[in-house]
Model the fold of this input.
Amino acid sequence: MTGAGRGELEGTVRVSEIPARATGSKAPKVSEESTVSEGPVVSEGSRETEGAPDGVRPGAAGGAVVPAGQLPAGQVSAGRVPAGRVSAGRDETLPGDTMWQSSPPGSIYDYIKVASFSIGPDGLVDQWSLRAEQLFGIPAQRALGTDPIDVFIDPDLRERGQRKMAEILDGREWTGVVPFRVPHGEGGECGKRGLAEVYVMPTRTRDGEKAAVCIVVDVRTLRSIETDLAASQSIFGQSPFGFLLIDHDLKVRRANQRFASVFGGTPEDHRGRGVHDYLPRGEGDRVAATLRRVLETGESITDMHVTGFRPGSDERRHWSVNLYRVHSGSGRPIGVAWLGTDVTARRAAAREAAAARRNLALLNDAGARIGTSLDLETTARELLDVVVPGFCDLATVDLYQGLLTGDETPPGLADGSAELRRVAYASAVADVPFLGTGTRVQVGAVHHYPFTSPCADALRTGRPRTVPAEEGGLVQSTLAVPMVAHDTVVGLAQFARTKGSEPFGDRDRGLAVELAARAAVCIDNARLYRREHERALILQRSLLPPGDPEASGLDIACRYLPGNAATGRPSEVGGDWFDVIELPGHRTALVVGDVMGRGLRAAVAMGELRTAVRTLAQLDLEPAEVLAQLDEIARGLGAPGGPSQAFAGGVRQATRSARRPREADLSEVYLATCVYAVYDSVTRRCTFANAGHLPPVLVEPGEPALMLDVPPGLPLGVGGEPFEEVEVELPEGALLALYTDGLVESRDHPLDEGLQAFVGALTGPARPSAAPPRADTHRDLEDVCDHVLHTLDSHHGEDDIALLMARVQGLPAESVGDWALPREPRSVGRAREYARAQLTEWDLEPLVDTTELLVSELVTNALRYGEGEIRLRLLLDRTLVCEVWDSGLVQPRRRRARDTDEGGRGLQLVGLLSAAWGSRRTPRGKTVWFELPLPGGDSGLPDPAEALLSLF
Done:
């Protein structure tokens, strides 16, 4: 249609909007019946007479378009609207709208507004219908006798309107879009403006005078219907959901492209199909009954779940369907709208979430029910009570027989062939054995699994394995899960599901491992608790380092006096300890510690801390880092799971021992003090870190003894604060003393007095005035220890006494070779030359070839994988140590080269030809080192040729 411009009175409209073209100046022939002088008769109470002048042919509306949702199912197609099948669907209502529903259901008048009036020979309105009153808002008494051009047309368009009126009264038919306004005055909607499509048909009065009948259509309604239908068509066709219109016979009247893409074909192919053509019989009956209920009651259905299959697929799919009844413009139900979306993935995710919630509830139940007793069999039965039937249908628990009898490493433990005892069995079904695992094993019987069986493989590798089900058996899925506690396999748990149950999946496998691990920790705790006394006795016999400690660049003397040793009463082990640990690069770690408390608990805690110190020292951590790790371990000593719980981060298991009343000094057992020092014999520098211990005492040659100012941190086991380090350069011949509080404190001598006495004893006549000859150093140091113990009140027997004294003897400058190498390939040859020259100078010719080979390997690795400048250092003391430094942070890792590999054997060669090798981090990178025994010693060097051949 054209816009409301000045040219609209010329009748230029779309062809589809013109029901009959203008006939020119000649008037059409009219039958005698149509030329009545009064014109069409309109009666308010007569539907027939009213509809005569107002009726419009199906095309008179000019191709009106209506929203798809307001049409009856099956009556909407692209680009056409059948007559009588259009819905109003607008929010605009006029007074007396009930008149628009006077036509039969489904009439076009339900959707568009059509009115009529007639013009007499004088060009004035002589007939004004009721629908004209409603369309224009002007009553008949005001409209009759008026000039429609003067009344409804704007002044600037009236001249053209008058010409058109003259042509019409001259007998010419005309169609066009006319802008109009409602004049001011009484009645009507004053000032209202709009557009009307007018169809003017010439007529004659009874007297033969020329007149006209005007058919008027509200263009606003047509345009809104056209817009709504276009939007509805777009939504229907482009919707990502399956859209159906279903009629009263429950047949598909229309389907969109999305639905057709799922079920095949084109949307037209689905016309006339029923729900049973898409769904299984049972599901189709249920959906059909629901559709009938929606048609009858008008009640909408939201999120109805429908299950079926796609054509050509056996995979079950799930859809969420919304149903609602659709009405015509007159309010008559015409069908049901079906809006569906595939929710298969969402349903699968919901099932996964439900399974996760069930697993979490099972884990919570396991945490509350497993580990309530220190009895091994009871703990195993508690595990089965949790998993059967909530997790599986059958379950068994086997524990290593050797562990049950106290053997730490039973034969066959590594390969899974050791003997096991079945300690528990549970079943939620009939008496069914586990098939595929050999003959049935009774509870309490001792047995073992074949080496090639999945169960033995699970015990051997520490990982769960699936046991194949035997054909014809009741069991369809079995998991063999090793019970691992603190990195130790203590037994095997088997979980089985019978046919009809869902097989085990990856999520079930993880849950089974977690349940078995929790039970294993409880079982292992019970076993360890039962053997605590034996372990404590063994630990008591190994409190002191074996033999006389030796260290590079230090002469060591030590004393240990257990409490009550001088009183004649039975000795009770305490928590004092000392240790001397050799580190790479001719460095030495000196440790003195004191676990608070007495008895076996203190001995156990001391043994664990002492072992941990040695382990951490081998990692070459800084002293402050060692104490920080010891603090974590000490805090874990009081946990139900032991010190490993400080690092495991897992679920803490409750045990009977955690619930029993504890003794008054229990909290002291797991607190300890410790001083840790690392001495470098090359630089004679010593780095200290202190965890609440008494300060070290240093005696320099010719100087009085003094206590070193090492910041005392919190005791081990308290946590919360970092530890500080202090580095001190020790002069040649200096004496360093580390001790425990039993030496300087007793009931009769407060701590301050004891410290002063200790410093005085070291400053007295026994203090060395200068460094003694090297041969007499050890004897002199032993005498100093005896003098200190004799001077102080060391026989009170109230506490253990540990005393560690070290005389500084740094490496001579001639025993150190140090070279810086540029980062270039020629440095490998230079390194060999430096090593050969230095060993020749040291009269170590037997070591030249081996040292050259190993130095070449390490320098080559530094060039290929390291960073920055390379440094080569040779150290000669009781052994020969070679170090290669670089700025790279990546530690070398030894691997086993295959027979076809051209490289990858360098570190293997270093390991074969050296007595020891390793790497450590430095503040500026890393150091890779190896150690060789000196010629003439007890340990000889392997032959390089044989070592090279052994690589292939």
About this structure: Residues 1-105, 565-571, 646-669 have pLDDT under 50 and may be disordered. The first helix runs from residue 47 to 54. The longest strand covers residues 193-204.
